[in-house]
TrEMBL record:
It comes from Pelecanus crispus (Dalmatian pelican). Pfam families: RNase_P-MRP_p29. This is Ribonuclease P protein subunit p29. The keyword Phosphoprotein applies. The keyword tRNA processing applies. One of its GO terms (cellular component) is nucleolus. SMART domains: POP4. Belongs to the eukaryotic/archaeal RNase P protein component 1 family. Component of nuclear RNase P and RNase MRP ribonucleoproteins. RNase P consists of a catalytic RNA moiety and 10 different protein chains; POP1, POP4, POP5, POP7, RPP14, RPP21, RPP25, RPP30, RPP38 and RPP40. Within the RNase P complex, POP1, POP7 and RPP25 form the 'finger' subcomplex, POP5, RPP14, RPP40 and homodimeric RPP30 form the 'palm' subcomplex, and RPP21, POP4 and RPP38 form the 'wrist' subcomplex. All subunits of the RNase P complex interact with the catalytic RNA. Several subunits of RNase P are also part of the RNase MRP complex. InterPro entries: RNase_P/MRP_Rpp29-subunit, RNase_P/MRP_Rpp29_sf, Rof/RNase_P-like, Rpp29/RNP1. The lineage of its organism: Eukaryota, Metazoa, Chordata, Craniata, Vertebrata. Keywords: Nucleus, Phosphoprotein, tRNA processing.
Amino acid sequence: PQGSEEAKAFVNAFLKRSMPKKKDEAIQDILTRKAVVLQHYSKKKTKQKRKKTKGFTAKQRREMRLFEIEPEQQRYSIFLPLHELWKQYIRDLCHGLKPDAQPHMVQSKLLKADLHGAIVTVTKSKCPSYVGITGIILQEFKHVFKIITKEDKLKVVPKLNNVFSLEIDGFISYIYGSKFQLRASERSAKKFKLKGTIDL
């Protein structure tokens, strides 16, 4: 019943447990005014700062030889499946390379496409020894292509002063290396001009 000693003892004990930060006098003051507001004191969660993973520097990558292709892996036949994947990738990118496709649209897609796996041929060069080199692009850097030839030789061909051709499903595209000195990741975001001076 209201006003009994048991009820008072229960309320006092309950309020002490619920409001551990308040003193007995404050609890009694609340009881006399008959205004009890119970608050939940939640512990503040400390946010753990995420550590950013630092990548390797260019010097460390060279020392670890991360991008070097071992001599026993420098075989043309190993990378033929990569070329087949690249052809499928280009067909999907250009919506099938249909005969009625507009050449400039295909050309604009190829300019921004990833060329790893493409078979290219050096058609023009200021250095005659580069002309005629044909093979699969294994690595593309800002200034050079690394190409594996049918003779299982790894060639490093500079982009500057060279013209490359690549053929897929009867469509032949020419790459002017002097205008192509970008990394593959940078090239995808670059806007190429449709007209301009073309030279070696």
